[in-house]
Amino acid sequence: MMTSKPLNCDISESSRVVAAVEQISSDLGGEAVILNLKSGVYHGLNEVGARIWNLLQQPQVVKDIKQTILEEYEVEPEVCVGDLLALLNELKAAELIKVENETGT
To answer: What does the domain layout of the chain look like in residue ranges?
Structure first.
């Protein structure tokens, strides 16, 4: 029996996200390599992922990141938000970002 229960911190377009403190990253020819200092695991990002990672160095609202990517790359809005949320969930699972969900207003 499979049940899908929502995570405590689902990431939405109104979530505020920022890179975690316990990591270091480097730009490698337009791509990014990130080392999680707690786990010792390296993570690599392609050009678009690296651009998103650069945006995450300061707290950002997800919808603002989406808008920046839509302005800088040729991508459909639905594809953009799907890929963006998938990447942010992967980064969160790897403990590379912190997520604050907006509540109420």
So the answer is: 16-20+48-100
